[in-house]
Amino acid sequence: MKVLVMLSGGVESTALIKYGLDKGYNVETLHVSFNNKSSFEHKQAEKIADYYHVEYNQILIDISDYHDKQERHAVPRMDNPYWGCGLLTCAPIGGYNEAWYGTHLGETPPGASGPAGINLVLQGVGCETRVKSPLYKKTKKEQWDMLSEDVKQLVTSCNRIENMLDYKRGPCGLCEKCKEWKKFAISV
Hints:
Blueprint: E1 2-6, H1 11-22, E2 26-34, H2 38-52, E3 55-61, H3 69-74, H4 80-94, E4 98-100, H5 115-124, E5 130-132, H6 140-145, H7 149-152, H8 161-165, H9 176-183
Parallel strand pairs: 1-2, 1-4, 2-3, 4-5
C-alpha cells in the first residue's frame, strides 16, 4: 500500500511515518509551507523524512498572493486549509491508496473538517485516495513514546524561530507549541 503522510514535523505526523513503515507500507511525505511557523518547520520535517529514508515533498503557498497584508492579519485562520490545498494537489497525481494526517486523542476526531470532507472533494475529482488519521485514538504522549530518541530530537517542539534554528537552546516554554507540550505533560 502506498501512503502519503502530511508531515508537519510534529509528533503526530512523525509517529505516522513510523507506524506506516512498521506496517510495511510504501510511505511518502508532503509538507505544506505557508507564511507562518510552517515556513520554518519544513527544515525539521525534511530531516525527519531523511531519517526514515522516505520521499519528502514540499509545497509553498504564499498567502500574500491571495490577500492584501492588512486583511491577512485581520482574519484568524487554522492551518487546515493550507494542508488541504497540498493534499488536493498531490493525491490525484501521486497514486496513493491513503493519505494520513496527524491528530491525537483529545484533539480533533476525524470528521467533516478532516478526512470526511476532503474525501468527498477527492471523490468529486475522481481520486480514489482515502484520507485517514490512523493514530487519532492514541494520546500525544503515546505517539511521542513510539519515537526513538534520535527522532525526538528532530520533532518540532517550539514555534520560536531562534529555537527552531538552534535546537540546543531548547523550547522557550511560552509559545503555542510549548504550551501544548506542557498540557500533555511531555518533557522535550
